[in-house]
Amino acid sequence: MCKPVKHGVSYLVAPFGTSRQLFLVAEPEENYLCSGDDTQGHGQTVSDWSRQIRSLLESCQTVLRQEHFDEHAAIIGQFFLADIGKKELVRQIFAEFFPNEAYALTFVPQSPASGVVLSLELWAITGDCSATVAVQSQQLGFGVTAEFDHLRWYFLGDVRPDDQPVGAYTRSLRAFQRLAQQLEQHGFRSEQIVRTWIYQGHLVLPEGKTQRYKELNRARTDFFKGISFLKDYLPLKDRGEVYPASTGIGADDVDVVMSAIAVAGDGKDVMAIPLENPNQTSAFDYGTVYSPQSPKFSRAMAVVVKNSCLVFVSGTASITESESRFPENPEKQTEQTLDNIAQLIDGKNLERHGILGFVSDLSHLKIARVYVKRPNELAVIKKVCDQRLGMIPILYTIADVCRPELLVEIEGVVVVNR
């Protein structure tokens, strides 16, 4: 059951294998009004920002302590900022609050849908596991490893290209290459990636004779070429095309930032299986009308450890087969999107993919993130999500979706035990 701490903070705790997983969404307790003339970014002073960051992190710290997620926990945080220029301020205050914890952070230039200046999605892992800081660098990203149940996890956040390349294709490709370099430096390989997030600035705007999202897909296709994903963890050797789960979504600036999760281990009692929706064409099979190079991702990725199954649900929209449904109708698009997720994670669909013995539906979502294209449609979208998803932590943010007619995109994490 979701536990509200106070206004703006909610969380769930769930067992997965021998670990405990905490999923939390937080916003500042109060959205301070600006004062004085030293305003910087969205009418907020630096002092205002500092108070709001501290308010948010105090609540998170309270939750982690009362749920016994101590300094041996791994913490993965995604900050959504109305002003990306405050990234360093957020990072410094976070390090002050959590000086001994192992964490990986990503700073996303997306405005929270509620109108506050920042929001946080936090995932923490503790229990019979160990966590280690892998990389903490403004240039290379923020990484952390966690190990439990014969499996090592690597969480890498805030991966950006260097300053030299220009253009959506070149910068996206360079960001993927940097991601791969970080994996290799910490004992992982690109083929072990199970989940990626790609935040592309000005996602649907044209670039030359094409579109920035299409250039992103071209870069991803070129980078993934020749990689045999998760071959050590697939229960069946001939599964056709295999790609990580992913979200490719718009951002407020012009650049690209990525984060990723990879798994490695001896394979004992572990499976990693991509999931597809029988009511949707696989994204990697889309026709060229949508993109000359189809989006290379699976609809979801299931990681099975003994009697526990964790499912990363990719960014999902109102699409059946390969066609967008209910244009200009945010309520019906949200319903269709949730129908798609329900079909994807249903126990029968898991069984169809070789994952046996799990009963799963929308009630097993532990956290969700909802990307809203137009702020004035937040209320109707939120109403549907509240009715269908109940009391789970949900983060709402404003972002472009990959097709002009799509108004909402939803992702999430499912944890279910036999």
Question: What is this entry, summarized?
Answer:
The protein has 418 residues and is α+β, with helices and mostly antiparallel strands. Helices cover 23% and strands 35% of the residues. It has one domain.
Looking at this protein, list some descriptive labels.
418 residues; alpha+beta; six-stranded mixed β-sheet; 7 helices; 22 strands
How are the elements arranged and paired?
Blueprint (H helix, E strand, L loop, with lengths): L2 E4 L2 E8 L2 E8 L19 H21 L7 E8 L5 H11 L4 E7 L9 E10 L2 E8 L3 E8 L2 E9 L8 H18 L7 E9 L4 E2 L2 E2 H13 L20 E7 L4 E10 L4 E6 L24 E6 L2 E9 L2 E2 L2 E2 L5 H16 L1 H6 L12 E8 L5 H12 L4 E5 L9 E10 L1
Parallel strand pairs: 4-5, 10-13, 20-21
Antiparallel strand pairs: 1-2, 2-3, 3-6, 4-6, 7-8, 8-9, 9-14, 10-14, 11-12, 15-16, 16-17, 17-22, 18-19, 20-22
Number of strands: 22
Identify the strand order in the major beta sheet. Answer: 1-2-3-6-4-5
Question: What about the largest sheet?
Answer: 6 strands, mixed
Number of helices: 7
What structural category do the secondary elements indicate? alpha+beta
Distance between the termini: 18 Å
What's the multimeric state? Answer: single chain
